């Protein structure tokens, strides 16, 4: 059985630069197995953080990218058919609960509400997962913890978590790191010089100020890392920024001009 869960163990330390006291807070939350909600814009380090914490706590990590087509069975499990007949296959949530992993449900808000509710009995003191089709009430392993990510900018009336779901979690706020920290991250992840990393971060800061004024989302740390990775491949900085920073976030010609101008200011 251990080989099922061993594939989810993280053996080398995922690089993570702490932003505030999130590492200590998470450790305390894990020690009481509090379900956690990591809140913040896309590409700001939530996934990397949970990978780092799973490594630090020496727990396997099972990550599920949620989407609107995902059903409760995709999480919990289903009967499958092969030459020998039908057999039960645990879904990722059931594997995590059975063997004691951290289960990270990324962008949970994308999942339909009838899917989201399957996590409820795992998030209160019952810590159980009913496998209804199989007729099993799975009691979660002592090491099991559930973590979800949530981008507050994305919610709308149609797509938001129910209060009854939200209130089952402790919340940690994430945001793009401040200038020096983000520059260090970009330099570390890509191999560009600190000087170039700082310029990339400065462009992102300009773009983030335009959020809500024509841009839905700012330029994320992830996008800066894409730009830096192109620059280390000897792509001209203007072209790298156009491809990795400007084109993906807007189709509006005026906004593109404004962002291209920011790139020219720094490079
Ligand atoms: P999210 O899950 O919030 O969408 P990610 O965790 O995938 O974002 O972050 C995108 C990338 O940014 C990561 O792969 C990592 O390279 C980098 N990153 C962001 N914040 C940090 C941080 N604090 N320490 C180290 N790397 C970071």
TrEMBL record:
Keyword annotations: ATP-binding, Nucleotide-binding
Superkingdom of source: Bacteria
CbbQ/NirQ/NorQ C-terminal domain boundaries: 182-265
Ranges for domain ATPase dynein-related AAA: 36-169
Single GO MF descriptor: ATP hydrolysis activity
UniProt xrefs under SUPFAM superfamilies: P-loop containing nucleoside triphosphate hydrolases
Gene3D superfamilies, A to Z: P-loop containing nucleotide triphosphate hydrolases
InterPro entries: ATPase_dyneun-rel_AAA, CbbQ/NirQ/NorQ/GpvN, CbbQ_C, P-loop_NTPase
Keyword Nucleotide-binding among UniProt keywords: yes
Homology family: Belongs to the CbbQ/NirQ/NorQ/GpvN family.
Protein name from the UniProt record: Nitric oxide reductase NorQ protein
